Amino acid sequence: MTTRELKIKSVEYRKKILKYICNAGAGHTGGSLSIIDILNVLYNRVMNVSPDNFDDPGRDRYVQSKGHSVEALYVVLADKGFFPEEDLLTLCRYQSPYIGHPTRKVRGMEQNTGGLGHGLAICAGNALAAKKDGLPLRVYTVLGDGEMAEGSNWEALMMAAHYKLDNLCAVLDYNKQQITGANADVIGLEPIRKKIEAFGWAVCEVDGNDVEALTETLENLPIEQGKPSFVIAHTVKGKGISYMEGVLKWHHGVPSPGQYYAAINELDTAFQALTEEKIGV
Amino acid sequence: MEMVRTEAIPNLNVFSETLQSLAEQDRDILVVTSDSRGSGKLVPFGVRFPEQIVEVGIAEQNLVGVSAGLASMGKKVFAVSPACFLTARSLEQIKNDVAYSDNPVKLIGISAGVSYGALGSTHHSLHDFAVLRAIHNMTIVAPCDNFETAEAIRQAAAMTSPVYIRFGKKGMPLLDRSLDPDFQIGKGRTIRAGDDLTFIGAGETVLPCETAANLLAEKYGIKCRVISLHTIKPLDEKLILAAAANDRPVITVEEHSVHGGLGEAVASLLFQQGCRNKFKIVGLPDEYTVSGSQTEIFDHYGISGEGLAHTALALLQIKT
Fold first, then answer.
1. Which residue in chain A is spatially nearest to B89 when comparing CA positions?
2. Inter-chain residue contact B61 with A129, CB threshold 8 Å
3. Are A121 and B101 inside 8 Å of each other by CB?
4. Shortest CB distance from B68 goes to which of A115, A125, A151?
5. Nearest to A28 by CA among A62, A70, A64, A63
6. Among the listed residues B10, B9, B49, the one whose alpha carbon sits nearest the alpha carbon of residue B32
7. One digit per residue, pLDDT tens: chain B, 320 residues?
């Protein structure tokens, strides 16, 4: 998929995220909009994961540690063909498998997550098993910035460096906000780069809402041989919707019908600009 | 009736030997430890199979999370840590990463119950049955002797769902196998037959049940049934109901809090099935646990041949 195609995908994904969150009347809107470009690049450019190879032990693995941004992952998995997109109309409904956090009841999900500080250790186990079996696959997780306060993450960081798991990549969706407010006001995580480097990981920083920059980074892993890779993806919570960007209430705010159409209008305009650009080329 | 044999090898040692024999035949067997290979008697395992042991350091949450990740890749993972830490510090990893995600990790709680004796409550696991019983998709096993331990470990290796196995480190004599020569996770074993009263124990409390049954037979001619209910979950309902069918007293005995463990599991079954046998739960009471060795703690709370005989006589309303 070309960079322009990825950009178009991101707009389409944002529209779908809003559609299904509004239909459900629930969801983690802001975080899904900040993570979506990372998932777009992982699933459409970087990872060898598809419905066709999902039972193949040699496939890459993705475990979403910040499980609450599941709506973004559902939209991408549906687009990949893991299940019919219209299934998402049942999101959070009685007896629906499509609940508010990742679950293996949904094809395409590797693990059940939702409690924070769990994904990295599981991925470290995946990566270690792959090394033991000589499988050339890579393992990816996306962490939330708020969840970096979980001590279990730091246990896993120590262990992954000790075992030189350079087939493991953690991406930090660093949108600088959590449910109570700015990370810096809740519990500061800076200097995050120095901390992760001190734990023995190779670290790089990237604009996490720029699919081109993400592609460049994620297609060139590991950052350093013999070390696990930590990508600090600087993102914007609510990215793509002007009235949501950086506004705390959209952590799990659901747009009203009027707000929904305003958001779709913005995204349609962005979509039009991209397609015209394509015709121009 | 065959008497209790006297060789006394800790179940812990048998666990380690069994794992080595399994690892020899199957390279997918992995042991994951949290600085616990010494206390788990796994040093020889590590020497023989350095590629099949993973050390994560003193980080029990990571122990279980990493084990889940290894198991999801097809490894047969034994996560080994003192029961007190494994089932408390890493409870959320057990609940989410193992049970809920259905990663078939074999959780091995070593030095369980009050095995650590005078090291105190930080090192006791009197809550593990209770918390794990309330988690869906979890099998709970407490083998009583070396035979049950070896079998439990072998069967766990082949299981495709999560299991927790806990045992102590004290030498345990082999109990009589003539009535029930086989071991199967999920099926309790009758160690001794008798119709006057039933003792139901698990793990290291089955031995004092046997001792009590001997005492009661010799001194009073009372014939007790002794059941090793090694699997706390799923409960062997058929065996328990059959034992209670004659309306004679039932005494459960566990190295666990009297709240939420073996005793309450059995009581719940009996009561809901309409059984109204005289019933007593013997375990660790809800109090600051007395200090002392495991044996002293057992004696203090009546988990001993004499203590249990006394409890039995009281239920049978026999004056001594």
1. A152
2. no
3. no
4. A125
5. A70
6. B49
7. 444 545 799 999 999 999 999 999 999 999 999 999 999 999 999 999 999 999 999 999 999 999 999 999 999 999 999 999 999 999 999 999 999 999 999 999 999 999 999 999 999 999 999 999 999 999 999 999 999 999 999 999 999 999 999 999 999 999 999 999 999 999 999 999 999 999 999 999 999 999 999 999 999 999 999 999 999 999 999 999 999 999 999 999 999 999 999 999 999 999 999 999 999 999 999 999 999 999 999 999 999 999 999 999 999 999 87
3-state secondary structure of B311: helix
Counting the structural domains of chain A, the total is 1
Say if the Cβ atoms of B69 and A124 lie within 8 Å.
Answer: yes
Closest approach of B73 to chain A, Cα-based (Å): 6
Contact B170, B148 (CB under 8 A): no
Task: Give residue A107's domain range.
Answer: 3-280
**Residues A200, A201, A203: CA angle, nearest 5 degrees:** 135
Give the other-Cβ count within 10 Å of B237's Cβ: 14
Say if the Cβ atoms of B75 and A129 lie within 8 Å.
Answer: yes
Q: At what angle do helices B237-244 and B262-272 cross, to 10 degrees?
A: 70
Residue in A115, A127, A162 closest to B96 by CB: A115
SS3 B47: helix
Which chain B residue shows the shortest CA-CA distance from A126? B69
Complex-level ipTM: 0.95
User: Which residues of chain B does A127 touch, with a Cβ-Cβ cutoff of 8 Å?
Assistant: 69
- Tell me whether B54 touches chain A (CB under 8 Å): yes
**Residue A161 CB neighbours (<10 A):** 22
**CB-CB under 8 Å, A112 with B75:** no
Residues on chain B touching A132 (C-beta within 8 angstroms): 51, 75
Say whether residue A168 is in contact with chain B using an 8 A CB cutoff: no
Each residue's pLDDT tens digit, B203-231: 999 999 999 999 999 999 999 999 999 99
Residue from A56, A64, A118, A137 to probe the interface with B (highest B Cβ count within 10 Å) = A118
| Of the partner residues B62, B67, B72, the one whose CB lies closest to the CB of residue A155 | B62
CATH code of the domain containing A51: 3.40.50.970
What is the rounded CA–CA span in Å between residue A71 and residue A98? 9
* Average pLDDT along chain A, 281 residues, taken 10 residues at a time: 96 98 95 98 98 98 97 98 98 96 98 97 98 98 98 98 98 96 96 98 98 98 98 98 96 95 97 80 48
B35 lies within 8 A of chain A by CB = no
Pair B175, B191: CB distance under 8 Å? yes
- pLDDT tens per residue across span A150-170: 999 999 999 999 999 999 999
Q: Of A143, A198, A150, A151, whose CA–CA distance to A174 is shortest?
A: A143
Which residues have C-beta within 8 Å of that of residue B202, sequence separation ≥ 6?
A: B142, B144, B228, B229, B230, B232, B253, B254, B255, B262
Q: What is the pTM of this model?
A: 0.96
- Counting one residue from A and one from B, how many pairs have CB atoms under 8 Å apart? 94
